[in-house]
Amino acid sequence: MDRRHRVNTALLDRLRTELEGRPPRRDLVVSGAQGPTLSLDGELLVNLASNDYLGLAGSPEVLAAAREAMRDQGLGVAAGRVLCGTRSVHSALETAIAELVGTEDAVLYGSCFDANLGVFAALLGPDDVIFSDALNHASLIDGIRLSQAQRRVYAHSDLNELERYLTESTEARHRLIVTDGVFSMDGDLAALPRLAELARRYDAVLLVDDSHATGVLGGGTAEHFGLAGEVDLVTGTLGKALGGAAGGFVAGPRAVTETLRQVSRPYVFTNAMAPPLAAAALTAIRLAIHRPELRERLAANTSWLRSALRDLGYEVLPGEHPIVPVMLRGGTLAVDMAAALRREGVLVFALSHPVVPAGEERIRVQVSASHTREHLEQAAAAFGRVRGLLAAA
After folding, report:
1. Are 24 and 2 contacting, i.e. CB atoms less than 8 angstroms apart?
2. 264-282: per-residue pLDDT in tens?
3. What is the Cα–Cα distance from 129 to 172, expressed in whole angstroms?
């Protein structure tokens, strides 16, 4: 007897047709711990594709904290926070996050995606309006869709359009402005000073997703712009600069965090973060605070590689963040360049439509404090060797 699970034929036919119309994509399986280099098919590559901005994913202190927590508390808790899942390390981590980003309290989630899925529906209803930047992360977009609030999307960083929408929504109970602190495709920073001013003028709440800023810009974009206390709510991740493992958070006034603990579905109905990951993230936060040389080295590495790529003739979007977009517009040029760079010993990924608009194809280079000058020089030399693809395009 054929015991294979039988799926509706019409569904399978539709999925196969849609797959044929999409560019093929397979997860790349690399080996070795996250760091400035990774192995692929036995070849050691300079890793310019990671969010490990401060190089803490491989920190001996971070790894030791995780090992100690696993020895003392086990791998996981097999329960949600509202059951028997909460450990003292979770509360300590929430306190450390709140201190880092400058808020009264913070609440942990399994990821920032979960945090963004859970925050809007818990706080807002049909009488409220959310204003979202057009280039906000997918997790913000999905979280906003899950809420019953009305939605208005303003063109990327077009704060004149945002202000017009604010003036048109005077009947709303609450108005919430939502933006990435650092936009992941371009590496540009939100115009936080004006956003904060608009929020004050129109009595709106300001929420910033600082996933690519926390740790990289100190406590985040508010600290970077000298706007401590001017951002109402901050969401972020522990899976990038702060250890690179997992976890996310919402930080803000205690009335907000306590409400989330009561009613936010991704918090209530999900296992608590594994204690080893929480301990690792807590240690990473302490290192990020007490080792400013990590940020200094990251800034120096970013500046050097940006200059080197521009000197080679590449179009590099301006900025200061370690997300360095190298624009390779049109067709499959970005994909071809990424493949060529991999053959030359550098791991990068191409971003093409629909991830970015057609004509805005690029390679997103991501720099880490763990990169040595030798790593960066090797990467720049590889970009130089594959430069001929541009002339042939």
Report:
1. no
2. 999 999 999 999 999 999 9
3. 6
DSSP assignment, residue 273? P
* Cα(188)–Cα(186) distance, integer angstroms: 5
Question: In this structure, what is the dihedral angle of CA atoms 113, 117, 119, 120, given to the nearest 10 degrees?
Answer: 140
Tens of pLDDT, residue by residue over 63-122, are 999 999 999 999 999 999 999 999 999 999 999 999 999 999 999 999 999 999 999 999
Nearest C-alpha neighbor of 72 from the set 81, 64, 61, 83: 64
Cα–Cα–Cα angle for 357, 360, 361, rounded to 5 degrees? 105
Report the SS3 class of residue 328: coil
Phi–psi pair at 115, nearest 5 degrees: -60, -45
- Quote the CA–CA distance of 359 and 74 in Å, as a whole number: 49
Question: What's this model's pTM, rounded to 2 decimal places?
Answer: 0.94
DSSP letter assigned to residue 172: -
Q: Are 46 and 264 in contact (CB under 8 A)?
A: no
Residue 80 makes CB contacts below 8 A (sequence gap 6+) with: 268, 269, 270, 271, 272
Q: Which two tokens stand for residue 178?
A: 């939502």
Can you say whether residue 367 is alpha, beta or left, with left for phi > 0 and alpha for psi between -120 and 50 degrees?
beta
Of 16-30, 126-140, 189-203, least confident by mean pLDDT is 16-30
User: What sign does the CA torsion over 225, 229, 231, 235 have?
Assistant: positive
* Rounded percentage of the chain residues whose pLDDT exceeds 70: 97
Q: Which residues are catalytic?
A: 184, 212, 240
